[in-house]
């Protein structure tokens, strides 16, 4: 009986436990069904995420154009090729992997820069999938389409293409620090995020990042448990919004010409730093601005040489180009008489001695001759005559010690301590004050205009990609501290001074053209001693022209060049930039005036597209137009080219074409460094340079095959081989 009773109690207990457990489960399921969540997790959302797929639709970053609509920075779609070698994602009816490696290798080798044998070696490796290095990366739409069509015709599987956006700078070294860079930032894991976008990291790309950046769209759709699209269910699509466009004031043709000039001087005279800028004197538009060191924005070659934009971020003592402004202030204050004589050579002032650059002077000379000879003594006398406080007011009014407000990041203010009497008078000849090139250009605009100062600017307009509405950037003008009459007298005196015998700016005259120019030679401070160096200088020139009503201002600086037979002192190195630049500007102006058109009517020839043409068709067209060209490869179809289609093309510019199949190296003799880099860009071959100048020797013979990862050495040599240093006749001009 006890046994039966125990069994009965146990059964009753088990029944109660079962009912209790069932009750708990019922309550739990009820809670899940009613609330749709478990342990704080939304189950409906989890199911939605499980069967819902989102595909990002990438927005294009806005395009940066020059003043005439020529592209400077554009978004481009490129593709990476991947081969699937495993069959674990395939079905019998739907193969996803390589089934015929030899046939696929033949097609691929005919379209990219790899031999058939090399492609086959890739396709037979014991891995799940394989990429093809640089040869299979950054492929054009035309190349991808050609491969796809041929694979589909022969029913071959296993090759897929990953699409990606990249920022393309089709002109290479082209105002690179000013235009800037846009890159995918962050680590590799971040780059796989679908919403990742290009971000401006330098120059105007950074300053106008918000304006240029678009907004990605997306497609939302449902898939079943096997990953197949469910066609009966609606999908949601949100279109991307592309970024807005930016039009610069830069003139593509003039900028390219300036870059070429600086390349040559860099190769021949290897200065530590160079800047050259041309602005429209009336509205402040920067027409061209270049520097060295610079970098190729496409290949990023030399980018680590300097991240500093010398136009706005580099501060230095300007030297005697400051005398243009001192002269103007002295004329305005009525203390400059061109016919008044004074004793040159040296002057004791405020507890120190200021000397002319030749130290002994030229005896008693007129003030106009003092301007011609760039006499420090004269300008100290002028600062004392107008008064230190008055001169400080002029320096402030010209904009020194403050930012110009140009649309570039990290602009520096410069410094002007103006703390003790000797330093105060020294600022009159450009010593004891630090400036940036853009500050000097802003101040010179007062001399060009008289009644106002114009702010240097780089932006012409912006364009909304959605509405196509344009926003124009108007010139910003400030009141000038000098009158129009004073400005014209300053220009006339500078121009007349250039005609005086032994004038330091005599080498900057232009026959038949009126120019007001002033040179400068500024000593650099020795970092070890803290004193002015006797061997390190920044040479410069400022030119305003035509003198009767200046349209252009040109400002050039060259720091610590070496000397050659054709440039034996600093000013001659500056002239190697100055003369070809001024000649080109004058040619532009005369062309405009002769045909009655305005600058805004000018358009440049664009590069034709040779993609998908046969090599014989492309060569025939190039010869017909007398265009320089070079062919890379032995294939029959053109698959890539530089310059890119629809970008500006000059008559003397070389077009480089690459065919399908394995690439062969051309004869690089007499090629420039930039042209050789285009070969590297097209083929993925690493090229090492030795020396500066133009190609005289290459380690791989003409016609030899090139493959990505291969290293080629190219030796460069300059036409001028002069070495050593010579002292400048202006060497101590600012002491």
UniProtKB/TrEMBL annotation:
GO cellular component: plasma membrane
Transmembrane residue ranges: 12-29
Topology versus the membrane: Single-pass membrane protein
CDD domains the record matches: PASTA_Pbp2x-like_1, PASTA_Pbp2x-like_2
Keywords, comma-separated and alphabetical: Membrane, Transmembrane, Transmembrane helix
Keyword S-adenosyl-L-methionine: no
Record localization: Cell membrane
Chief location category: membrane
Top-level taxon in the UniProt lineage: Bacteria
Ranges annotated as biased composition (Low complexity): 717-735
Region (Disordered) location: 714-735
GO biological process terms held by the UniProt record: cell wall organization
PANTHER family reported in the protein's UniProt record: PENICILLIN-BINDING PROTEIN 2B, PEPTIDOGLYCAN D,D-TRANSPEPTIDASE
Protein family membership: Belongs to the transpeptidase family.
Name of the featured protein: Penicillin-binding protein 2B
């Amino acid at each position: 009986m006890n046994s039966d009773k125990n069994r009965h109690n146990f059964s009753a207990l088990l029944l109660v436990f079962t009912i209790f457990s069932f009750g708990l489960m019922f309550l739990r399921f009820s809670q899940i069904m009613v609330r749709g969540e478990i342990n704080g997790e939304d189950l409906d959302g989890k199911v939605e995420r499980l069967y819902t797929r989102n595909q990002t639709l990438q927005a294009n970053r806005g395009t940066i154009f020059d003043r005439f609509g020529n592209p400077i920075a554009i978004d481009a779609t490129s593709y990476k090729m991947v081969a699937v070698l495993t069959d674990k994602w395939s079905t019998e009816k739907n193969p996803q992997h390589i089934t015929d490696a030899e046939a696929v290798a033949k097609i691929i080798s005919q379209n990219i820069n790899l031999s058939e044998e090399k492609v086959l070696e890739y396709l037979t490796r014991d891995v799940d999938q394989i990429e093809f290095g640089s040869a299979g990366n950054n492929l054009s739409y035309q190349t991808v389409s050609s491969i796809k069509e041929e694979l589909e015709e022969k029913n071959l599987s296993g090759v897929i293409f990953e699409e990606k956006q990249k920022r393309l700078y089709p002109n290479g070294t082209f105002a690179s620090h000013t235009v800037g860079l846009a890159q995918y930032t962050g680590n590799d894991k971040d780059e796989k995020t679908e919403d990742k976008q290009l971000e401006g990291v330098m120059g105007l790309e950074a300053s106008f990042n918000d304006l240029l950046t678009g907004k990605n769209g997306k497609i939302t759709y449902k898939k079943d448990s096997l990953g197949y699209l469910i066609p009966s269910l609606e999908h949601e699509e949100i279109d991307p919004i592309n970024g807005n466009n930016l039009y610069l004031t830069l003139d593509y043709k003039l900028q390219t010409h300036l870059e070429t000039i600086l390349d040559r001087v860099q190769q021949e005279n290897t200065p530590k730093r160079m800047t050259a800028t041309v602005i429209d004197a009336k509205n402040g538009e920067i027409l061209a601005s270049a520097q060295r060191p610079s970098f190729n924005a496409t290949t990023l070659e030399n980018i680590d040489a300097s991240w500093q934009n010398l136009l706005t971020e580099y501060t230095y003592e300007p030297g005697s180009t400051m005398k243009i402004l001192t002269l103007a202030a002295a004329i305005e204050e009525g203390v400059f008489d061109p016919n008044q004589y004074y004793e040159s050579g040296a002057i004791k002032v405020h507890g120190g001695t200021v000397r002319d650059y030749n130290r002994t002077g030229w005896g008693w000379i007129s003030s106009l001759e003092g301007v011609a000879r760039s006499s420090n003594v004269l300008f100290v006398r002028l600062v004392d005559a107008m008064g230190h406080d008055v001169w400080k007011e002029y320096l402030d009014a010209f904009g020194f010690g403050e930012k110009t407000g140009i649309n570039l990041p990290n602009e520096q203010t410069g410094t002007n301590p103006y703390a003790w009497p000797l330093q105060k008078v020294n600022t009159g000849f450009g010593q004891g004050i630090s400036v940036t090139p853009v500050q000097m250009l802003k101040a010179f605009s007062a001399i060009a205009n008289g009644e106002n100062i114009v702010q240097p600017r780089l932006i012409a307009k912006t364009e909304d990609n959605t509405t196509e509405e344009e926003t124009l950037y108007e010139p910003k003008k400030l009141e000038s501290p000098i009158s129009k009459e004073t400005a014209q007298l300053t220009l006339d005196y500078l121009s007349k001074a250039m005609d005086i015998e032994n004038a330091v700016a005599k080498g900057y005259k232009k026959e038949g053209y009126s120019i007001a120019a002033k040179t400068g030679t500024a000593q650099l401070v020795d970092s070890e001693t803290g004193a002015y160096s006797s061997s390190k200088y920044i040479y410069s020139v400022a030119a305003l022209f035509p003198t009767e009503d200046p349209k252009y201002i040109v400002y050039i600086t060259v720091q610590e060049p070496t000397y050659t037979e054709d440039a034996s002192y600093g000013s001659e190195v500056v002239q190697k930039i100055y003369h070809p630049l001024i000649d080109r500007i004058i040619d532009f102006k005369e062309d405009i005036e002769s045909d009655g058109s305005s600058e805004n009517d000018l358009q440049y020839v664009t590069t034709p597209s040779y993609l998908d043409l046969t090599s014989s068709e492309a060569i025939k067209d190039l010869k017909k137009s007398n265009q320089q060209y070079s062919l890379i490869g032995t294939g029959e179809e053109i698959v890539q080219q530089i310059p890119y289609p629809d970008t500006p093309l000059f008559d003397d510019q070389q077009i480089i074409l690459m065919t399908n199949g394995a690439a062969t190296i051309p004869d690089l003799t007499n090629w420039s460094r930039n042209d050789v880099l285009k070969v590297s860009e097209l083929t993925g071959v690493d090229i090492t340079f030795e020396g500066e100048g133009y190609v005289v020797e290459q380690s791989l013979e003409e016609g030899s095959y090139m493959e990505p990862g291969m290293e080629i050495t190219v030796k460069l040599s300059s036409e001028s081989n002069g070495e050593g240093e010579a002292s400048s006749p202006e060497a101590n001009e600012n002491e």
